[in-house]
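Researcher: Can you fold this with adenosine-5'-diphosphate in place?
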Amino acid sequence: MEKKSELYAGKAKSVYNTDEADKLILQFRDDTSAFDGEKIAQLARKGMVNNKFNAFIMQRLEEAGVPTHFEHLLSDTESVVKKLEMLPVECVVRNIAAGSMVRRLGVKEGIDLNPPTFEFFLKDDALHDPMINEYHIQTFGWATETEIEEMKVLTFRVNDVLKQLFLGAGLLLVDYKLEYGRFNGRIILGDEFTPDGCRLWDAHTRDKLDKDRFRQGIGGVVEAYEEVARRLGIALD
Ligand code: ADP
Ligand code: UDP
């Protein structure tokens, strides 16, 4: 496969066109950002770890009946994916209260959420990704009613699959963000599933093993991602 022009350079990944019109190359970089791009750093090995982590998770999801954009690994830091027409919304499911839910609602970090919650956010850094609801999405044409329903069903299916997968590795899946896109009239999971976009706590100590280590300046960020990968049996080298 031939890499063509850069389509988009995001905060953590670069997206390239290829010689196949319906395929893209996603390059996972070492760049790490938080607070809508206000805090930025380069973390050695993170691109490689996240690329392989994402490949592993996307394959588990595909096996469990969640359609994903993932095709195959191309190199240590690159994957081939289907080119989607991305919907500008982020889907967040939470099993345990943390992050913006705690700040917004004043609930205690760490409480179990039963049932798990579902939230939509608008993907717009300049507006700081505001929370939106299904009416906003339909009214402003960001997705149709059917697409909204499909995103909810798939995002909860991902929860069923991944909660168990991580628990088997001694980890709690606290929350996560997913992005979807259109492909041949279907809604497909795009973007990534890595510790950059979810929260994972050690099931016994509740140590944070995700991007909160970067947000909160705890350190050992990539080491924590590698520990999660090791527990899941993901080969990194
Ligand atoms: P951000 O845009 O938030 O800075 P990234 O650095 O991760 O995020 O950039 C990756 C970009 O690629 C995101 O905007 C994401 O929506 C987009 N993207 C992810 N998967 C696909 C895909 N399969 N097809 C088209 N665009 C995609
Ligand atoms: N998240 C993300 N990208 C975003 C916003 C959130 O990947 O632009 C993830 C985040 O890592 C967490 C979940 O979505 O796993 C919920 O994030 P939250 O709303 O708590 O926001 P935060 O506290 O991270 O700002």
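Model: Folded with adenosine-5'-diphosphate in place. Residues 185 and 208 are 38 Å apart (CA to CA).
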